[in-house]
Design goal:
This protein is about 40% helix and about 20% strand. By secondary structure, the chain is of the alpha+beta class. The strands form 2 sheets. The chain has a 5-stranded mixed β-sheet with strand order 4-3-2-1-5. A two-stranded antiparallel ribbon has the order 6-7. Strand 3 and strand 4 form a beta hairpin. It starts with a helix and ends in a 15-residue tail after the last helix.
C-alpha cells in the first residue's frame, strides 16, 4: 500500500467515523425530544389530576447525605433518585454534597430525560420512561376509577 492509498484509507475512515457520530447525535436528539414531550405530558396530566407535588430532596454522590433543594415536583422512581419538577424539567437527584450543601441546600441541574430509565446500568434493570410516568399517575391520582385519562403520547 502506497502513501497515497494510506492517506485515502485514513480519509475514508475519518469520514465514516464522523458520519457515525453525526447519526448518533441525531438519534440522541430525537430521543431527548420525545422524552421531553413525555415529561411535558406528565406535568400537564399531573396538574390536571391534582397530583400533589412535593419538595424534592437530593442525595450525595456517595449515597449518604440528603440535601434540601429549591425544587418542587414528583419523584419518578422508587429510589427517589430521578424526578420531574413542576416546570417540566427532568432531574437526576445526585449532587456533590458537603458542608455547603448541608447548610444552604443543593441545586441539581436539569438533565435530558432518557426514553429508557436505567439503560446501560450494571444491574440490567431498565424501564421505559412512559411506563414510569404512567404508573406514577395511576398510583398517585386522587380520582379512583377515573376513565377519562388521556393516553401518554406515542412516538
Amino acid at each position: 500500500m502506497g502513501e497515497r492509498d494510506g492517506r485515502e484509507w485514513r480519509d475514508q475512515q475519518r469520514h465514516a467515523v464522523r458520519a457515525h457520530a453525526d447519526a448518533d447525535a441525531r438519534r440522541r436528539a430525537a430521543e431527548h425530544a420525545e422524552a421531553a414531550e413525555l415529561v411535558a405530558w406528565f406535568v400537564a396530566e399531573a396538574t390536571r389530576r391534582g397530583l400533589r407535588a412535593t419538595r424534592l430532596v437530593a442525595r450525595g454522590y456517595n449515597g449518604r447525605g440528603r440535601y434540601r433543594t429549591r425544587l418542587t415536583g414528583w419523584y419518578v422512581d422508587r429510589a427517589r433518585s430521578r424526578a420531574v419538577d413542576v416546570d417540566g424539567r427532568f432531574y437526576l437527584l445526585t449532587v456533590p454534597g458537603g458542608l455547603r450543601a448541608r447548610l444552604f441546600g443543593a441545586d441539581p441541574e436539569p438533565s435530558p430525560a432518557p426514553l429508557i430509565v436505567g439503560a446501560g446500568g450494571r444491574d440490567g434493570e431498565s424501564i421505559p420512561l412512559r411506563t414510569l410516568l404512567t404508573r406514577l399517575l395511576d398510583d398517585g391520582t386522587d380520582e379512583p376509577g377515573s376513565t377519562t385519562t388521556p393516553a401518554a403520547p406515542r412516538a
